[in-house]
Amino acid sequence: MKLNIAVLPGDGIGSEVTSQAVKVLKAIASEFNHNFKFTNADVGAIAIDKYNNPLPEKTLDLCRSTDAILFGAIGHPKYDNDPSAKVRPEQGLLRLRKELGLFANIRPVQAYEALLDKSPLKKHIIKGTDISIYRELTGGIYFGEKQLSKDGNVASDLCEYSRKEIERIAHLAFKAAQMRKHKVTLIDKANVLETSRLWRKVVAEIAEDYKDVILDFLFVDNAAMQMILNPKQFDVILTENMFGDIISDEASVIGGSIGLLASASIGEKYAMFEPIHGSFPQATGKGIANPVASILSAAMLLEHFGLFSEAELIRLGVDKSLKLNISTPDINTKYDNVTTGKVGEFIEDFINNPSDTNMNFTNIHLGQSTII
Ligand code: IPM
Ligand code: MG
């Protein structure tokens, strides 16, 4: 298959982790005889520095002309600590999502066998957890009108949703549930918010078309508690933009590290694949950022184009790296010298030689090999 992929590393650790994902995709292309072409472009703080625009037109044009986008991370502390900044890196990502119509953000969360002891949550609570979060991505409070009074003392953000915006992602969530454990949980705040009541009404109507799927409702405050009390109760979670942002960071604790969580942002025409983590400025350039979220985002990209065996091989490589502790310090208590690049190389090598022995892999990648 021929695929043109736009690579938008963005800020902080973005370039370190996306370059591992690209490495892995190149290995897949050569093993399976695909033709993947990668083109890089700037977005975020780095684009503000260069062009005074977090999403330069050139980047947007590239995204519109490619088959898929691999996104790194966005954000820089100099903007986080300056509430008066008019131009912010995050605007680049939000505009990109909006311009490309990426309304559905799919965030899979699972408890990896090899990492059950690494989560701060008890093993018996998280073991077997497998959740797919469907977060609405182009509406709600993120995109509603923003106001600040002239004297700077009153501010507001409008939260707005239309029936159409709810319907299109709800259908995707129900269809996903049909392929999984046949349950959708809608997370909202319908006891307080009008938008949430519209979500409940519309989603309940749509549920009529999916008789084989159970629809459940949870208020977001309760859902936040349930997520760490009993995460196994969830199959597909459907929720609006802001609640999805918050609940997915919380859910990442189940996996053991936010550095493991991948996502796909899908629209009618375009698709973008991005880790859920941020730009982790403190780690930039140190080789300690976990590239697995970016590598698994690349696997989701392949699945999007029906390349399931290819994606599966990446997942097997990730599993093996976790089992052998070929992992960055966020989840590695055994070795302290496994860098971002080593994890990428290990998975790349696994793709090239899936049947090689564990021992060789471990030794080679820890630099202890007597063979090379
Ligand atoms: C995410 C991030 C973004 C969001 C930020 C960087 C704007 O937190 O993708 O979860 O809030 O959507
Ligand atoms: Mg977030």
From TrEMBL:
<keyword id="KW-0560">Oxidoreductase</keyword>
<dbReference type="InterPro" id="IPR019818">
    <property type="entry name" value="IsoCit/isopropylmalate_DH_CS"/>
</dbReference>
<keyword id="KW-0028">Amino-acid biosynthesis</keyword>
<dbReference type="InterPro" id="IPR004429">
    <property type="entry name" value="Isopropylmalate_DH"/>
</dbReference>
<feature type="site" description="Important for catalysis">
    <location>
        <position position="189"/>
    </location>
</feature>
<dbReference type="InterPro" id="IPR024084">
    <property type="entry name" value="IsoPropMal-DH-like_dom"/>
</dbReference>
<dbReference type="GO" id="GO:0003862">
    <property type="term" value="F:3-isopropylmalate dehydrogenase activity"/>
</dbReference>
<keyword id="KW-0460">Magnesium</keyword>
<feature type="site" description="Important for catalysis">
    <location>
        <position position="142"/>
    </location>
</feature>
<comment type="similarity">
    <text>Belongs to the isocitrate and isopropylmalate dehydrogenases family. LeuB type 1 subfamily.</text>
</comment>
<feature type="domain" description="Isopropylmalate dehydrogenase-like">
    <location>
        <begin position="4"/>
        <end position="347"/>
    </location>
</feature>
<protein>
    <recommendedName>
        <fullName>3-isopropylmalate dehydrogenase</fullName>
        <ecNumber>1.1.1.85</ecNumber>
    </recommendedName>
</protein>
<feature type="binding site">
    <location>
        <position position="97"/>
    </location>
    <ligand>
        <name>substrate</name>
    </ligand>
</feature>
<feature type="binding site">
    <location>
        <position position="135"/>
    </location>
    <ligand>
        <name>substrate</name>
    </ligand>
</feature>
<feature type="binding site">
    <location>
        <position position="249"/>
    </location>
    <ligand>
        <name>Mg(2+)</name>
    </ligand>
</feature>
<dbReference type="Pfam" id="PF00180">
    <property type="entry name" value="Iso_dh"/>
</dbReference>
<feature type="binding site">
    <location>
        <position position="221"/>
    </location>
    <ligand>
        <name>substrate</name>
    </ligand>
</feature>
<keyword id="KW-0963">Cytoplasm</keyword>
<comment type="function">
    <text>Catalyzes the oxidation of 3-carboxy-2-hydroxy-4-methylpentanoate (3-isopropylmalate) to 3-carboxy-4-methyl-2-oxopentanoate. The product decarboxylates to 4-methyl-2 oxopentanoate.</text>
</comment>
<keyword id="KW-0520">NAD</keyword>
<comment type="subunit">
    <text>Homodimer.</text>
</comment>
<keyword id="KW-0464">Manganese</keyword>
<feature type="binding site">
    <location>
        <position position="107"/>
    </location>
    <ligand>
        <name>substrate</name>
    </ligand>
</feature>
<comment type="pathway">
    <text>Amino-acid biosynthesis; L-leucine biosynthesis; L-leucine from 3-methyl-2-oxobutanoate: step 3/4.</text>
</comment>
<keyword id="KW-0100">Branched-chain amino acid biosynthesis</keyword>
<feature type="binding site">
    <location>
        <position position="221"/>
    </location>
    <ligand>
        <name>Mg(2+)</name>
    </ligand>
</feature>
<feature type="binding site">
    <location>
        <position position="245"/>
    </location>
    <ligand>
        <name>Mg(2+)</name>
    </ligand>
</feature>
<keyword id="KW-0432">Leucine biosynthesis</keyword>
<keyword id="KW-0479">Metal-binding</keyword>
